[in-house]
């Protein structure tokens, strides 16, 4: 079924929104991945696998007796889906559970899985469902906080002058033997594609191949500072720039962004299929 495509400008971002507190799946606003992927040279199947790991910190509903219930939700959106869900619409959708009576947490989980799965395929057959896990209050205390593992690039004393993506800053040392290493920076910042509001994140880059110049890589990460793009799009741009410019044999890019509106979004892209990283928040999240 062909469905007219949404654009980010048509979403509720930056607009006054009605507060809906009765369950309404129609609040979800899908945006096609293909438009921004075409900008970075992806016109068919991507060279990467991956997922977007969401955490919802503000989820509540009423049980059958009208007593409020609360939970955390971990949501996994497969990168092969045709669409992302705009985050404000996701927040409005979760708000719509607030005064809705639902018999069990399992039913809440199943509704979220069904609705998100339908949204990310937007009119097409669901080929890979979203994953949804609810954590009830008795498990809150077991939720860990852990920083991304790897060599911290932020220790480098570098000069930064570029604040729009500058892939030409990326280079490798072809004179030395290939390496396998994991590099981390907490200096990733970009802006919302529509509102221009800041998005703060940490990024982990794991690769095998000719060694990437670390100073240039950190300057490249910093160059996203004034760039307007959604989280998922920034991570895919980073992946494709490194993949194209540095030509590693294997590459994984994983970013964890601080929460906004009770949601954090953590895209993970890798050149080889494998287990998802644990959805563990960092101190800033």
TrEMBL record:
Main location: cytoplasm
Claim: Cytoplasm is one of the keywords in the record: yes
Residues reported in the UniProt entry to bind substrate: 85-87, 231-232
Domain of life: Bacteria
Quaternary structure note: Homodimer.
Entry function: Catalyzes the NADPH-dependent reduction of 7-cyano-7-deazaguanine (preQ0) to 7-aminomethyl-7-deazaguanine (preQ1).
Annotated NCBIfam families: QueF
Protein name per the record: NADPH-dependent 7-cyano-7-deazaguanine reductase
Organism lineage: Bacteria, Pseudomonadati, Pseudomonadota, Betaproteobacteria, Burkholderiales
